Amino acid sequence: MNTALIEASYRRLVNEENPADVHLLRSALATAELDCKLTGIDDGADALAFLRQPSATDAPELAIVDLNLPKHGGLEIIEVMRVTPAFSEVPVVILTSSSSPRDRASLENTRVRRYIVKPADLDEFMKVGWQIREVLESGVRVALRRRNETQPEQLTA
User: Is 72 buried (19+), middle (13-18) or exposed (0-12) by CB count in 10 A?
Assistant: First the structure.
């Protein structure tokens, strides 16, 4: 999978080097009825260049990152996201072939919302879309709650 940006109802940044996995992810998102545009970024170097752009308007609602990327790994991508103002609060989902406890532990302080090991079975992979939808919907609820907490109370006459 590469990094991709989803625009429409949701924009997602997906970092995945395998075009077949990007295709499967698109299908899984469609199965979960997520209206989004997915634009792939093929490797870690291109992902870092994307993150270092001066435009904050490109920040997605969610980043989907593979840990095993050419040139720069997923952990490095996430670390750069967390110190880049436009991307620091973007929720991250890991979608990787690695089930290594060491890889999971390396992400402990990165505020990753979900760690998903890529299923080998097609039917199971299609369920990934629903997991991503759940993360997005929980993020929307949190954002609405924060916005309501920061808005002053309306006085009624």
Answer: middle
pTM: 0.80
- In 1-157, beta strands by DSSP E: 3-5, 10-15, 36-41, 62-65, 92-96, 112-117
7-11, 90-94, 116-120: least confidently modelled range: 7-11
Per CATH, the architecture of 3-150 is what?
A: 3-Layer(aba) Sandwich (3.40)
Domain ranges of the chain: 3-150
Which two tokens mark 24? 């499967």
CA distance 43 to 66: 10
DSSP 152: P
Q: Rounded to an integer, what distance in angstroms lies between the CA atom of residue 21 and that of residue 1?
A: 5
Which among 121, 3, 24 has a CA at the least distance from the CA of 67? 3
Task: State the CB neighbour count (10 A cutoff) for residue 20.
Answer: 9
Tell me how crowded residue 52 is: count the other CB atoms within 10 A of its CB: 11
Measured distance CA(41)–CA(152) in Å, rounded:
41
Integer-rounded Cα Rg, in Å, for the chain is 16
